[in-house]
Amino acid sequence: MASSSPTSAAALVVGYVPGVTPGKWARTWTRRHPDVPLELRPVTAADAAEAVRTGLVHVALLRPPADPSALALIPLYEETTVVVVPTDHLLSAADAVTAADVDGELVLVPLDDVVAWDAHPGTNAEHRPETVGDATELVAAGVGVLVVPQSLARLHHRKDLTYRPVVDAPTCPVALAVPAGEQPALVAEFIGVVRGRTPGSSRGQAGAAPKRTAREKTLAKQAARAAAGKVARTPGPTKRGLR
């Protein structure tokens, strides 16, 4: 049986898509397992799921793919969706906007778009940029606006652009993708890190209290009832001098 703790001979490769920041989990890993190297490897949104399936990375922090086959996805958090516009754009005057506010705009939808609209607001541009980065350049050129997760708006920030939350837009989930099936020790340890488990609460931790059998639970309940009955039948102190 594999050990529940990583060994010094092992290493873990963690892929991550643009906008996702794995630093806090990497720091936690390094504190807990200083003898186990952790490599952070950037992967494109289009290639992240396949990188896990083929073993190019052990796990990946990504936005859930349309095809999750052969993967197990562990939800982590939901990102706010924002609209990216030039700083002098009309939408920049508000602190937040709605999808209806975007309806009059030409909306750029890159090929790596991750916002799961039932129907995109506004008029979709005929040309689809290759990436969010390419689309951002077109927004700066005044071609249209862009709707993306907030982390991608920050990643591609420019001084001549700004962004505003779209309050009724779908949020953008981020998940940890691991190979489906039983997990190797290193992967199981990293799952514990991203889920916020303490070292003592990690699954498979040696010394954890064993589960009681059904018979043991029944005997414990019977003993508790018997003890309660004895307490109820114990006579209280008598008062002397009373007949």
TrEMBL record:
Short name of one Pfam family: LysR_substrate
Source species, domain of life: Bacteria
Low complexity: bias regions: 220-233
Key words, A-Z: Activator, DNA-binding, Transcription, Transcription regulation
SUPFAM superfamilies: Periplasmic binding protein-like II
Chain segments carrying region Disordered: 198-243
LysR substrate-binding domain residues: 25-196
Cellular component GO terms, alphabetical: protein-DNA complex
Gene Ontology molecular function terms on file: DNA binding; DNA-binding transcription factor activity
InterPro entries documented for this protein: LysR_subst-bd
Stored PANTHER family: HCA OPERON TRANSCRIPTIONAL ACTIVATOR HCAR (PTHR30346:SF0), TRANSCRIPTIONAL DUAL REGULATOR HCAR-RELATED (PTHR30346)
UniProt record similarity statement: Belongs to the LysR transcriptional regulatory family.
Protein name: LysR family transcriptional regulator
Organism listed in the record: Mycobacterium yunnanensis
